[in-house]
């Protein structure tokens, strides 16, 4: 590895096509190198062999189609539904059949995070993913961070019962008894070509002269900072583990190697930059819908199938990802020369459109387009770039409708509000069709949290007014569509996690450092934006600097006016206990509580708020140097979520109460509290 890095540095000095880390100060050099490589690869047409890769990622249990908006003429929008697993299955089979007709072997891969994000998951958890994903006949899946959300026993059951391997080469399970014996959670999987499909094999000797291929997984090296319970698992460095795995597979005689990762697009580019020998990286985690989807109000991201020169100056790695929520599917064709080297990567992400279109965001059935208007609309949609009209797989649709949907419909509960327009959520301001203020929904949720902890019932527990609230964008899993809003929309879709609220005192200096750190971490191209902060009771203007860091100016609402944040002053803050513990890049809060804290964590017991005293939050390192954060509670050894009468979705209840108390909320304009200039 050292030799490879030295070679890479020399090539960079003399101005050849090697590249530095894309997020660093030499990003322009990297981009130029990628363009040169792309031109060179595209010019090569002497393909000896081709491989088709069909891929999805970050599906987050979105089994039904998602609401969407499409612009078919400037300034004119129509409303519809896109994606869903039945459409994914239809399109995947079409792509497999197309590859088969061309004599090209194909793989169907999942880049991780099948768990969490829908009412289906809240009710049926891992079981519905086992059922539905097994029906899709995947070839492999990466281990995502949200696969840990419901505990190691259920992750173990999921990995044991799926009919495809769950891959993570940099995760050592040997010390964790719940996962040590799960043989289907493995570093890599070998395959031999059988016609136009791939047969998994246990050893290279079983290839018996057939073409050989390997897929290995890479999970987040900093998983412990994002996931509350990883037990005794050990997470190794992504780049080091990847190179070691490639070297091992190469020594076995494997000529074609694919990395199936859940790192985020920027870290995938870094992996390709620093590791020799990976032909393709199929990624997830950053929800990157590579390509131009502005006509779907989903923005424009880097081009699909970026081609990154390896540090040895010889190999090239193709990097792809396919968005989120089962809305799109990626299709990549990789060409190899006689020496087994990649000579071309071509393909695209395709958004999966339906056949129902509405003139209003309310999507009323009696207003649906019909006749000539519908025919014209369908023709226009079919002509859109990166778009296909796809019918749902009827058998999978029937399974969802008969086995799972009735319970989901019942779980939504009572109506609490209504809106004539969609209330959008984006993670990073300026993405997904948003302006510099970003998510409207996140602001309302921050308002609800702040209002809730200042109610008399909670004030009796936390002893004093709370001035500020902060929430990370990744805590919010969905936007609100136009129409009637039910309790289930909040508890099952928008805020599906067990999210107790934490009230604590922090200094202005810690707040400023927290905002600068979390905002800066989301700014590099392709970075994971789940840690981006939204708030209430404070407002800030952040400006991106040339090195992707952020300068932040903060004001606090006090004494009926906006006043500059005082670094020397103490403020009372409410956030979720997940973030208060320092997870997802919010380590500044853990550091502020490392010695002592006045923090109170709020849950609901038989519908009434109850507080638990936190004494301090510790940070520990595993044997690989990865941190984990643990709150120490006064007189409490086990967190009571899941016990009878206990409801830990305090943040969701705060939003439900907020909406019920303000029927005209959506008719009022909320002043922006977040501004990001990039």
Automatic annotation (TrEMBL):
Gene Ontology CC: outer membrane-bounded periplasmic space
Keyword set includes Hydrolase: yes
GO MF annotation list: 5'-nucleotidase activity; metal ion binding; nucleotide binding; UDP-sugar diphosphatase activity
Signal peptide extent: 1-23
Keyword list, A-Z: Hydrolase, Nucleotide-binding, Signal
A Pfam short name: Metallophos
Positions of the Calcineurin-like phosphoesterase domain: 53-288
Location of the 5'-Nucleotidase C-terminal domain: 436-590
Keyword Nucleotide-binding attached: yes
An annotated GO BP: nucleotide catabolic process
SUPFAM superfamilies: 5'-nucleotidase (syn. UDP-sugar hydrolase), C-terminal domain, Metallo-dependent phosphatases
Family per similarity comment: Belongs to the 5'-nucleotidase family.
Name the record gives this protein: 5'-nucleotidase/2',3'-cyclic phosphodiesterase
Naturally occurring in which organism (per UniProt): Alishewanella aestuarii B11
